[in-house]
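Task card 7
Instruction: Convert sequence to structure tokens.
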Amino acid sequence: MATAPFPAFSPSQRILLGPGPSGVSAKVLNALASPTVGHLDPEFLRLMDETQQMLRLVFRTANALTIPVSGTGSAGMEACVVNLIEPGDRMLVCVNGVFGGRMADVAARAGAEVRKLERPFGEVFSPDEIAAAVSDFRPKVTGIVHAETSTGALQPIPEISRIVHQAGSLLLMDCVTSLGGVPVEIDEWEVDAAYSGTQKCLSCPPGLSPVTFSERSIKAMDARKTKIASWYLDMSMVKNYWSQQSRAYHHTAPINMNYALHAALRDVLDEGLTARHQRHWNNHLALRAGVEALGLQYAVAESHRLPVLNAISIPAGVDDKAVRGMLLKEFGIEIGAGLGPMAGKTWRVGLMGESSSPRNVLLFLAALEGCLAAQGGNVPAGAGTSAANRTYRELNTAV
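Output:
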């Protein structure tokens, strides 16, 4: 039966300032559109090796098992949990946002005896809290979120890592939103397993999840008495495909997504991690100055504020959905809504990767001013952009 043809899909050009995905450069998009080759083609195998080498540099690790898992950041989370956890193992999960809660859910589904250590959304954990919990529970694995995307909170890790290891536990870290945007030091912090995502500060389309496993975690996996709960994410098999010695087929890799990640990692390393982290920090400072000049406040204390994901409190009487809708419709700007107990109370403004630029900061502040004025807010004309520009001048003078 004849049907009407479907029109070609042509998405609008957006300025992605939400919690992810972030903007993607033309270079990365061009790599994604390169000719597809086979998953065992010699040229693709070379790209795999280079991708692993670059991921080690970005993760700041020498871990041999450092690869991009086929799937988004949630697949990386599952890969880490199901490979480290056997039924009956104890896992302590630090929950101060949505993604800590998801880690606990994944662990329970893997058969772990899960204990949650909880803090209110937007807060972080103290070393003393962690010490008391691991001493009492004696977990095999302790999971924590470095950069909680749902709240905009950045968790300090080094002291907690020391405490966790003193208790004989492995440390699993979610760095989905932090990798490539703020310092992540896998070896220096002695993180045993970590997972990230391509669509945040790496500025690659969503579809892969970089993971890394320490020698200590690999020994734990090798000592398992039961099969890993997921065939697809079984690192004992997947690692052979990524090994130069074996290349044993496991599943067909997402070829073109790996092209894109390769290009994105080259961009990260060409810029340099220190310079990249500073760029994200500077744009955060300018946004903060502009937001405060508009009479708005952050929802997270300055001491543990995440610079790449800014949680801004919504003023009383302002319609959350109306502002986000106007930003998208009138200005092509996407920002995120609050999640969990912060729903309707915060906006999440991402300045990640390609999206972290003075152009986007100034455009967002000008657009937000218009949206607030449209709701009857008494907003000082030009205050936000003036404050941001002043911050940029001061930063440039300091250099």
